[in-house]
Amino acid sequence: MNKNTRLITIAVDGYSSSGKSTMARRLAAAVGYRYIDSGAMYRAVTLYALDNGLISTDGEPDKAAIVSALPEISIDFAVQPDGTQHTLLNGVDVETEIRRLRVSNAVSPVAAIAEVRRALVAMQKKMGERKGIVMDGRDIGTVVFPDAELKIFVDASPETRAMRRFKELVEKGSQVSYEDVLSNVVHRDHIDTTRDESPLRRAEDAISLDNSLMSLEEQDAWLLKQFNKVLQFG
Question: What's the pTM?
Fold first, then answer.
């Protein structure tokens, strides 16, 4: 746990495949905070919907059926021996499944359902009640934790983000093309920024970070600098 007596809330928002989850997870580990991947929660709901036939073959979610199923969906996180965190859906480890392109292609329309967002936002707020948390997503600094002491908004070009995601999927054994991944990134950007409920936008008091040309080490150093500034100056 962080040696500092003062605990804060850190919100990391940004576009899909911008690297926000990696940087948020690494920052949490560096300062001894709990890390929560809010995007994994929406992916878990999407996986449940896909596996239970609540999304049509053309990708259209059955909103009423998904909303009705929400009480049956339990989401939790389990820390692994190597320190990584896996997502549990109704007690089952679904970390690998929720990262596949099948889920990526369906998650934005599901995440745009107002009732789904409200249910998961309530869970996320509960998780952050004691502070000492780093959470990443689309609406963390604007909706979930509008009073977060440190807010970061991450961006990179669609092409850069698609290439990162493509390499990640290939390394995990997925058979995908860069063109399909880029199309998915652009499509998700459109849905995330234009949905009625909690659209993706930078909070007025968020610090912007374009990490297109940054290494992981450079990101880590930059984030720690922002963290220490907040602790020092409030």
Answer: 0.86
